[in-house]
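Thread: Newbie trying to understand structure tokens

Hi all, I'm a second-year student working on a class project, and my supervisor (Dr. K.) asked me to get a predicted structure for one chain before our next meeting. I've only ever worked with sequences, so writing a 3D structure as a token string is new to me. If someone could post the tokens and maybe explain what I'm looking at, I'd be very grateful. Here's the chain:
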Amino acid sequence: MIKALSLPRLASSIYHASWLKFRTLQESSISNPEMEGKYSAQMFKHLEKQSEVLMEAYRSMSHELHRLQVEEEMLTHKFYEVTYGQDLNQKRNSEQRSSADVGEAESDTVRKQS
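---
Reply by user tm_fold:
Sure, no problem. This is what the structure looks like when written as tokens:
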């Protein structure tokens, strides 16, 4: 199977090569009208093949895009879970510190009064 990252380059190079072949056949048929009928079946077959290859590249890239979107959604969800957990821990720690500070201040006040 072709790697997903090389598909855009592959599709581009296939398209470019097909276009060059098409232009060559087109130019030869223009210069010689008798050749137009001779190469039209060949051009049609070639363009059908190109269409199939490009459609396969499109399907593969769409599949890869969907997979990456699902992965992004999962990672974003996990990120929010982690940051939410950190916020809760920070709130608990600050509440514990403030209650410890209040308790310490009360004990200092009691000591000073005695």
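A couple of things are worth pointing out once you decode it. The chain has a mean pLDDT of 76. The longest helix spans residues 33-113. Feel free to ask follow-ups in this thread.
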